[in-house]
Amino acid sequence: MFQRYFLISLFFVLFGTTLIYLAPRYTKTGHGVKTEDIQKAESTDSLDAVVDKALLELQNPQGSPMESIMAIRQVLEIDPNHLKANFTLGALSFSTGQYERAIERMNKVVEIAPETEEAYKILVESYNNLGRLESAESTVRAYMSRFPEGQFIQEFQKIINN
Question: Taking Cα atoms as reference points, which of 67, 87, 66 lies closest to residue 76?
């Protein structure tokens, strides 16, 4: 049991580090993501910047988390297949225990960019947390066939063997 909690804790530490790494490298403005910024964003790079700014605002304790999440949702209204927005909302859903929503988002990420290993990881953990072990095992098998030497292969092999 301790090992499971340790692995879950390790995942959250790595996941948080990944989100921080994905955040842009500029100072916090504290102004939030404005609707005008989103409406002006037409290219994928501009939409990426909106998501990056929203992530930065989520890390700012003075910011409004809901405003940032709504900004990312607005990006998806413009481009429902926006990879970074889908991944970010899926990861946030997972971290807040909204596993069904995380599964929805991460399935979309895998559909858009099947090379995104982290999406498989979040999918497997979400299925496990919901007790949907067959779905978790199916996702593990899909991962293992796609990434025979992937970063989560050893951890996933333990799931298959149990």
Answer: 87
Domains of the chain: 2-161 (1.25.40.10)
Distance between CA atoms of residues 105 and 84, nearest Å: 11
Question: Would you give the DSSP letter of residue 148?
Answer: T
HEC profile of 34-81: CHHHHHHCCCHHHHHHHHHHHHHHHHCCCCCHHHHHHHHHHHHHHCCC
DSSP category for residue 28: -
Radius of gyration of the chain (CA): 17
User: In terms of Cα–Cα distance, which of 126, 120, 159 is closest to 4?
Assistant: 159
For residue range 97-129, list pLDDT tens digits in order. 999 999 999 999 999 999 999 999 999 999 999
Closest CA to 25 of 61, 49, 1: 49
The larger pLDDT score, comparing residue 71 to residue 31, is at 71
Model pTM? 0.71
Contact indicator for 52, 29 with CB cutoff of 8 Å: no
